[in-house]
Amino acid sequence: MRFTDETHDMYVGKIREILDCMRNSQFEVPFIETYRREVVDKLDGDDNYVWQIYDWDEKVQPVCRFAFRGHKCRFGFKFPS
Which residues contact 50 (CB under 8 A, 6 or more apart)? Predict the structure, then answer.
C-alpha cells in the first residue's frame, strides 16, 4: 500500500493521538475503542489495530528508554574536576 504525504501524515497523527490516550491519559485499549471513536475512526484496517499499536508500543518503549538513558549518561554527566 502506497501512502501519499497527506495520508502518511494523517496516519502518524492518529497513531500519536492513540499513544497520547494510552500514555498520558492512561486509557486502556477497550476504552479507546469504545469511547474515543473520534481518535480511531479514520484509521483503516482490521479491528485490532489499536491493540497492534499497543503491542508495538510495549515492545519499543523499553528500548527507547534504555537508549535515551544511555544517551543522557554519555552526554549529560560531567565528571568532577
Answer: 18, 29, 32, 33, 40
